[in-house]
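We keep the chain:
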Amino acid sequence: MTHLLRRMFFFVLALLIVRLPGHTAIAQPTAVFSVSDVRVQEGTTSLNLELFLKLVGAAPGIVPQTAELLLDDGGRYAAQLSQPPYYVALVIDASGSMRSVLPRLLEALQTLITQAPPQTYFAVIRFDEQIRLVQPFSNDHAQVATAVAAIEPGESGTCLYDATYAAVQSLEQIAGESPRRALLLFSDGRDERRQGLSEACSSYNLEQLLAYAGDRPTPVPIYAAGVGTAPGRVAINVLRQMAQRTGGQVADETQLVTQVQSVLNEIGQQWVARLSLQPPQGVRRGALLVTLSDQSLLAPVPVAFAASRSFVVTQPPPPSLALTIDNLVYDAAANLYRFDVSLSATQEVGSLRVDVLNKDNVQVTRLLHNGPVLPMQTLSLNGALLQAQEAYRLEVTPLSAAGRARLMENGRPFIAQYTFTHNPPLPLRLSVDGVQQLDTPARFDLRAWRLLDDEATVRIAFHVENGAQVAQYEALLISLQTNQPLGAPFTLPVAQTNNGPLTAEIPIELPSGAYNLLLHAVGADGQRLATTRYAFSAQAPDPPLVRALKALQANPILWLLFLPPVLLLLLLAWWLGMMVGRSSRPVAQQPLIKEAAKGAPPMRLQILETADPAFANGASVQRVTRFPYTIGREGCDLTISGDRHISRRHAQISYEDGIFYLLDFGSSNGTFVNEARVEANKPTPLSSDIGAQIRLGKTTLISFAEEGKD
């Protein structure tokens, strides 16, 4: 009865194949698939099956495309098709008896190697009395052909049996028990120490070799080609015994190319189908259904294997329905709410209905998610439908494929709820209240007995509301006359950035004219959150004399200090005038010459960097021979008028007791020696032997060194 059922099964199977859509009949009656080996590996939850196949009779270019295994219990399993590696050992006799035929043999082998299928792995063994592996197994056919071309004949004997024995061992080490292996032997079939003598060269004899190669669990087929200097020298009987005992073939020199090509064709016909199954316990039979690349079907290939235990997986009961709403997040930029809906038993749900209700339980809107319904999906809600500061409730209801609400055991609809309050961020407001150019009177330094330079400053007053996301404020001044920016954008120094009136003072000297202030509120990510403009006018700074008079006006006590010297100077001038008038010969007024400091060497001062364009084209090097030497923006030994970051009298270099000193006159932007700021009004020693770099303010850098020393 069982045998009859199996026959009926395969009959029905063949009938189904013939009637499959898109196929009118089984393709290519000459193309046949046969199973050469079946390997079973049982895992923890599945059984892995490898079917080693041979395709014979297929048209050129036609290869297997898909395969499916149909078992007698009704199970259907897709198989993965590939061509397995095939291992070929080329054993080449290079003894002295092969000298005349070896070049022709090697040339033929190189051609066949380059034409071999890509999955062919070749090893090359050269032997005479010595056995040498000249090429390990590799599918780099160009490399193998090069190794074959490099073989040269020797003058010694032929250890045929030992070389063949070693090649069989090498194949077993690489290919194991796989039937996809072959040994190609090229020799005259003689094992001799010297040509024409009967003394054996090998340590193994023919019987030992045949027993080892032919009695393996999976024999290693030997394809022997009888090649020699003369037909009478070829021991064809010996080669025939090797081939017959191992399931190979033997050929003479005229059949060499045909035999090797036959082996390569055999390699190209090898395929393997791999499957992962979950069959019940016992012997399983079925058929492998193969579709070729031209969409035709081959005849079913019978397959049988055994499973020591059952791999059938018992499906767990379907999970109970569970629904949750999580991760409600508001995107202020898009004015959208996004939330996650997690759902179990999605196969029972066709769509999701989302209702939004207000605090009075009145529906605000309804959304429908038509799927596909996943275990978790992110949905969105338009914030424009909601009122600020109002409370709402989200309700998500799973619906069946027919659009009906899923019910709980008590008959009520299955609903997940989530309550929230719509609190959108208030809009950021930014405005400028005013821009003021500060006119601070100059200060008189009693200790240094000089008028200190005032710093031109612009005060910006602005107002911000709802600025929680503001990280800083950036500003840009644009001249309305030229419509060009006045320098680069700058950051406003403020103590806090959130709310209320803010004030920032920026050291900027503005020429007279009309300006437009462009103010940006910038977030932590560098994005501009708000922008405002403010137009204003500016006046040029007062000249030095006016600033000095303002300083006296702001400090009346200075009149007590300045009035006596002024009266004394006036009296002295009157007396000198009287003396000049009395003199019969006018006395030439001698110019006031600054004395050279005693022992001071000549020094070189070079301007390395400055914002003043006047020090270009070679004007940046100064020779200094008299000290003290003053540097500033007005009326100094070195006047750099084009750099607004330098004070009018900024610093001084002096020489005393063999040491140069640098003195900062209390400048606004400071003086630095090798990037270290010097203390104001305190002489700082300079090193003249190795050179010193002095930075004045922010943009002027000079070097000071003894002349002739760099």
